[in-house]
Amino acid sequence: MSRQAVLAGNFKLNAPPDVMAKYTGNQANTINISIRDKYPGLKAAKLLVSLVIDKNGKFEQASVLSIEPQKLAMNKTQYQNFLDEHFRNQKFIPAVNNNGTKPEVSNLILRIAIETNLPGSMVENK
Known about the structure:
Shape: elongated
Number of strands: 7
Strand order of the largest sheet: 2-7-6-3-4
Strand content: 25-35%
Mean pLDDT: 76
Low-confidence stretches: 1-12
């Protein structure tokens, strides 16, 4: 991509897609996820996560952007592993630009609340 094309407005450099990726699973505001069996060490937490979704709507990886309470930050990898496993086979609608092109990958930002005192956790689907 040439600098002239960017300056002419033909390309958006490092810009988010016009339509973000979407989760196609449960469309309710919360999604139940069972955590007790495989991740008994997870504590109740509120997470802000970024899911990487490819141009075909396939989940690639999760990244925990923030975690509360802050003292759980040292366990961030454990939460990411849980999210990677949970979303691995989930369906997503890929991001798309107004011109119909799809970026190779895009990020879907979600807030997730893990409640260990309930039979599962709750994922806020915004």
